[in-house]
Amino acid sequence: MDRRAFLSRGALAGGVLLLGACSDDAAAPSASTTTTSTSLPSTPTIPYDASKPYWLQGGFAPVTEEVFARDLVVNGALPPSLNGLYTRNGSNPVTGQSPHWFFGDGMIHGVRFENGKAVSYRNRYVQTPMYVEQREFGDFSGIPGFAETQSNVSIFAHGGRLLSLGEVGAPYEISADDLSTVGVVQLTGAAGAVGGNVTAHPKRDPANGLLHFFGYGFTPPYLTYYVASADGRELLVREEIDVAAGTMVHDFAITESDVVFWELPVVFDLGGPAADMRWVEIDNGYVFHGANAWRDGDQIMLDVSCMDSMFDHNSEGSGDLDENLSILTRWEIDTSGADLTWSATPLSDVPLDLPEIDDRYTGRKHSVAWLVETNDTAAGNVEINGIAAVDPTTGSLDRWTPGPLLQPNEVTFVADSPESGEGEGWLLTYVWDKTTDESSLAVLDATNVSAGPVAAVDLPQRVPFGFHGTWLEAE
Question: pLDDT tens digits for 361-389?
């Protein structure tokens, strides 16, 4: 079979790993750490109320207004190479209430850069039917899918346009001019049509620009893999993958020749070709996010942020994000024999998640990844301590920890130029100040994270903690 065909599939009691062909026992490494902390005065902070859900207060709390502001104040000097639009999606319930951080309406926050200036900020809701009709999570018109989504997880730039993506449902196109909602994207082509669900983590092959993505469903087909053209206008591949049930497969990975899914035990209970697939047993647990994967001969290397469990309220200390820590781990899959084998090695003992790489190395061996450092607090809420650049070979960390009164978010990497080397560029992240309940957009040198921000852009309102962002270069 060609690169579009699936080669294998794998699983374990509680966990399943699927391996396929893409279209088109080592000891843990010794680790060193370089860290900088921002010294801050001891100032009263926004209080945490343990009687309320963490996702409805503090830096998580939804904002109520859509704001547009020009000529933003910059502290420090912005890199003149930043010319484009940084956007990030997140959960912002229009009703002010939601049963979980994951279940608010999608809101896009964007900052536009031109020649060393931050020219504007804007935030807008994704105009889904759920938002327009002010329905809360669970109040779906039938089974979630197609337009029935909160579209709140990520925003992705492909083929010159912005796509808002949720955990389920169809993509929504977002205008790069003003963040208004253009409408639902219904991609078709020689392979047929994309189904009702697309997840939030597509992967673009840097060699040919093809976009790999997938969707999982609550009814059959439970898992479907797709490939779209480099211009994002045609569906080239649609492959239904034979799995037994609908599971929460949040992310996946590609190499130059493989596609890898992890089917892990978050199961929804709503009341190429199978002959080429194989199984590999892996340890029980849960993974939201993978950093990257690549092939080294017969070995597939896959770096993921692993949790012991998720949503398991029957087990003490494992019910939600505030009770689980993610450990960056190297999975190694040996594909040389008739039976696949798997091993896992932690890359760091520091809790790390929301990984980012230089996406010019997607599916290829990378030399650096940037992740947020999470904190298991005594108060029971979720906190992010800082940003860490991880060397996956040595496990060494280059860390920016801004202190207890500032909390950053996931970073987005922007290359300094198309010709710059791997990781030579800038990290963009929203930062919440507990003392003022305000947000800024910090810009860090991706090659020297511990030095802290080279610039920070004052924003006209707080940006709630959210999920995933993207960069759209100016034309």
Answer: 999 999 999 999 987 655 556 788 899 99
